[in-house]
Structures are given as C-alpha cells and as structure tokens.
Amino acid sequence: MSGGTRLLVDTDGVGGVPVDGGQVVTNRWGTGVVTDISSYYRNTTSVDLKRLPDDVEATRSVVESALTEGAIGYRKFSVLKGKRLFAILRLADGSQPPFGASVTSEKGRELGMVADEGLAWLSGVTPGETLSVNWDGKIQCQVNVPETAISDQQLLLPCTPQK
C-alpha cells in the first residue's frame, strides 16, 4: 500500500455485503473501504456474489476506477435487500398488467418486470410494502405485499388501480 490509494464502496445502505473476494465486508450503513488499490491503473472491484447473504441481490456488482496516488475514490454498487417473490398480478377486471410493465418499490427502485399472464419475479421486497406497477410511462396500479409473504410460495396479488 505504497501510495495509500483507497476506494470507498457503497452498497445502497445494505450491510454485510462481501466485496473484493470477501476481503472487505460493508458495515451496517452499507459502506466499506478497499485498500489494495493500485495507483494510476484501472482497478476492477466487485461484489462477491458467491458469498452474498440469501436476502441480498446485486444488480450492479462490478465497478472500475483509475485513481492517482493517495486518492480516496468512491464507487456505488446497486444492491437490493429483501425477500424474493414469485407473484401473479391481477387487475380488478381479472386481466393482468401488460408484458414488460415495471414493478417498483416505495423508494422507486425497480424490483422486477411483468411477464406473460401477469407473472412477476420480484427481488428486494419488504413484507407489508406497497409496490407500484408502471406502464405507459406512469403508475397504473398498486400491489400490497402481505406482512406474512413467504419467499418459497407463489402469491396472487391484486393490483388496485391508481386514481
């Protein structure tokens, strides 16, 4: 560590995320410091996908940086924490949202997309959360995830129209 070049990594507030082959694990605020960064060369830093906790998923798991000697860089990984659900979405008339409709969290993060017949594989879901289903550029309906949502079950979720 001749020049003291470091990289501050951010995992969107998700703690316990192994980075750089597990040499660094993010703290409870989702930050960690990678110290083995070469100065003046392109460095690749990644989330260790093999060691991720079961309720965590990285949607952007590799970042690159080229830092000067002694610099402290910053890179952000896109990480979701929560349950994974296999859901069937239905509108009030029994139809389903269109293929490709986006399902987003209360924070505006995309958790999944609607496939054929209203099927949706969702990641990073918090039980009790209200999700928005978007198509044609706006929120069309909302889905309430039950407090007792279990990851290994398929859920039928009604999508209430947005007024």
Automatic annotation (TrEMBL):
Coiled coil: none annotated. Residues 89-144 form the PapC-like C-terminal domain. GO terms for molecular function: fimbrial usher porin activity. It holds the Pfam family Usher. It comes from the Bacteria. One of its GO terms (biological process) is pilus assembly. InterPro entries: Fimb_usher (IPR000015), FimD_plug_dom (IPR042186), PapC-like_C (IPR025949), PapC-like_C_sf (IPR043142). GO terms for cellular component: cell outer membrane. This is PapC protein. It comes from Escherichia coli. The gene is papC_2_1.
